[in-house]
Each structure stands twice: as C-alpha cells, then as structure tokens.
User: Which sequence fits this backbone?
C-alpha cells in the first residue's frame, strides 16, 4: 500500500509539473516538482524506494525531452547523494531540505546550460532569467509543500507501524 501511495505521489508531481505549472510559468520557468518530491522521498523513506522512484521519475521526464537519460541519471545521483548524507546526519529538518533543493535545482539548471551550450543554442540573458525565476519558484514551493510532505510521510510511517 505504501508503494502505491508513493507512486501516486510521484505521478501527481509529474502531471502537476507537466500540465498545471506550465500555465503559471514566469519567464518560461516552472519548478521541478519531481525533483522536490524525490528529495523528500530520499530523506524520509528507505533507499530502495527512493532509487526506484528516482528511476521512474527520470524515465518519465526523459520521455518528454532530449537528451534521453539526463533526468534519469541526475535523479539517481541526487538520490544516492542524499542517501549517503542521511547515514551521517538527520536530514529531516527544513534547512537541510532547503539547502538540498536549492543546490540540486541550481546543479540541474547548470547541467542544462552545458547541454544547450554544446548543442550551440544561445545562452542569453533570457535563459539566466529563467533559471533565477525557476529557483525562486522552487524556494516558494518548498516552503509551501514542506508541511504537506512532512505530514504525508508521517502518515505513511504511522500506517507502517500498525
């Protein structure tokens, strides 16, 4: 039952990101809800669940954009890094989640900038406005969704204890 709930959470964040958030983009940017969801899953759940959801989330986003495999690889690396950090310290606090989300969002945007550069596509000021706008939106979403995600994962833990 828990795996189905997590799968539904991933699919919900995917469809919200692809369909709903594009209507509210600022400078053409939308937050990466799949990345935010995977960060929370990596922090609050077991590593196998996190890696399997990272694999699925990466595949879903890779089906929509090129180069194929970039999202998949990035999400797997992010999940692996968080799992390693989780072994050393308690990451279930907002400052850690905030730091991880912002740093991985900036890294994700940097990787896309490199991809665009090597494809000889222009990296003008509009692209950098988009990155800043996306990171501001990500901060807002983390602040809004933190309470919801924490409650969501606490309920899952309570159901597993029963």
Assistant:
């Amino acid at each position: 039952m828990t795996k189905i709930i997590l799968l539904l959470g991933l699919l919900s964040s995917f469809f919200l990101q692809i369909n709903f958030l594009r209507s509210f983009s600022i400078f053409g940017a939308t937050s990466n809800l799949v990345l935010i969801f995977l960060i929370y899953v990596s922090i609050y759940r077991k590593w196998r669940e996190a890696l399997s959801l990272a694999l699925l989330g990466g595949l879903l986003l890779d089906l929509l954009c090129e180069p194929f495999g970039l999202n998949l690889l990035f999400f797997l690396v992010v999940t692996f890094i968080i799992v390693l950090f989780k072994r050393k310290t308690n990451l279930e606090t907002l400052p850690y989640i905030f730091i991880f989300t912002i740093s991985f969002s900036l890294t994700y945007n940097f990787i896309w900038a490199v991809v665009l550069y090597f494809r000889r596509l222009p990296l003008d000021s509009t692209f950098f406005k988009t990155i800043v706008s996306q990171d501001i939106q990500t901060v807002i979403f983390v602040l809004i969704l933190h309470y919801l995600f924490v409650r969501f994962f606490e309920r899952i833990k309570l159901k597993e204890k029963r």
The chain has one domain: 2-161. The mean pLDDT is 84. Helices lie at 2-20, 33-44, 47-62, 70-88, 94-118, 125-161.
